[in-house]
Design brief:
Layout: E1 4-6, H1 7-36, H2 45-70, E2 72-74, E3 90-95, E4 101-107, E5 118-120, H3 124-129, E6 137-142, E7 145-155
Parallel strand pairs: 1-2, 4-5
Antiparallel strand pairs: 3-4, 3-7, 6-7
Helix pairs in contact: 1-2
Length: 158
């Protein structure tokens, strides 16, 4: 199965990949060469740190290339789902008990970031929201117990 990604998420991942390849990779290669110039590699902490960072960068590059090559990129602005919650929806919720409002966008696993309001399509809250409509109430099993929300609005932006 191809993992879904929003168009914005795909662009962000491509930018990160380009940055790793064109900036970070050359920086770490220079750091390794510089550390080698200091002599004995067995006790050279700078060399070992640079090699460790190189491994991280190369691993991230491979991960991003794999994800991007297997992703199904979805242009959210072209979805005509109306008030129904589907992948890519920006959903505004009101807590049934506190009336506190939160806004989330349902995105692919790799682009999720709760601090930015981007929740993974496989997260419990996203799974509970998908298929619901504006005005519906939804109950979500959270670690702190069940929480009820009302869907205030559903929109789609590119």
């Amino acid at each position: 199965m191809r993992a879904p990604l929003t168009l914005k998420g795909s662009q962000r991942l491509r930018e990160e990949l380009e940055h790793l390849k064109s900036v970070k990779r050359p920086e770490v290669i220079l750091a390794i060469a510089d550390a080698r110039a200091h002599g004995d590699l067995k006790e050279n902490a700078e060399y070992h740190a640079a090699r460790e960072q190189q491994g991280f960068i190369e691993g991230r590059i491979k991960e991003l290339e794999s994800v991007l090559s297997h992703a199904q990129v979805i242009d959210v602005s072209r979805l005509a789902a109306g008030s129904k919650v589907v992948f890519g929806a920006i959903v505004e919720l009101a807590d049934a008990e506190t009336d506190e409002e939160v806004t989330y966008q349902i995105v692919g696993d790799l682009e999720s970031d709760i601090k930015q309001g981007l929740i993974s399509v496989s997260a419990p809250i996203a799974r509970a929201l998908i298929g619901k409509n504006e005005g519906d109430s939804v109950t979500i099993a959270a670690p702190s117990g069940e929480r009820s929300y009302e869907i205030i609005s559903v929109r789609y932006e590119g």
